Amino acid sequence: EESNDLGLYLDSMVGEGYRSLSGGQRQRVAIARALIRQPSLLLLDEPTAALDSKSERIVVEALLNALKKTKSMLMVTHRLGVIRSLSVNKVIVLERGKVAEMGHPEDLLRTGGIYSQLAQEQGITALDEKEVAR
Predict the structure, then answer these.
(1) Helix spans in the chain (H)
(2) How many other C-beta atoms are found inside a 10 Å radius of the C-beta of residue 35?
(3) Which of 7, 30, 67, 111 has its CA 20 to 30 A from that of 23?
(4) What are the residues whose beta carbons fall under 8 Å from the beta carbon of 34, sequence distance 6 or more?
(5) What are the tens digits of pLDDT across the range 58-115?
(6) In angstroms, rounded to a whole number, what is the distance separating the alpha carbons of residues 110 and 112?
(7) Domain ABC transporter, which positions (predicted)?
């Protein structure tokens, strides 16, 4: 649907290796291809890393829709706003290859640990208890 935003259509030729597309466009195409398959487990590595704010919102909306059809999603991301947007129920924080923290994102925000520090650097604060719907 959003491919028109790229100036492309579903039957557009983009060339071998998607060379005619920007990094963000290639990333959006790769995510769309993964979502079309409706996998039971969706694995994503920094799905919004190469995207501008508008494209990030589009991808997050697509991921929210995918979560309705996908049983599980495992995502690596440094953008903690994406975690909140997707209403993630469990975060695992790794440090030097080992689990440093694990829990609900809102709980981790209150601990003062690694996740909380990263969130603070990104301007993310804990929600009030009544705002947290688990």
Answers:
(1) 23-36, 53-69, 80-85, 105-109, 114-121
(2) 17
(3) 67
(4) 42, 44
(5) 888 888 888 888 778 899 998 899 998 888 999 999 999 999 999 999 999 999 999 9
(6) 6
(7) 9-49
List, in order, residues 6 or more apart from 120 with CB less than 8 Å away: none
| Residues forming beta bridges with residue 93, ordered by sequence position | 101
CA distance 64 to 86: 6
Contacts of 95 (CB under 8 A, 6+ apart): 114
List the domain boundaries for the chain: 1-72, 89-134
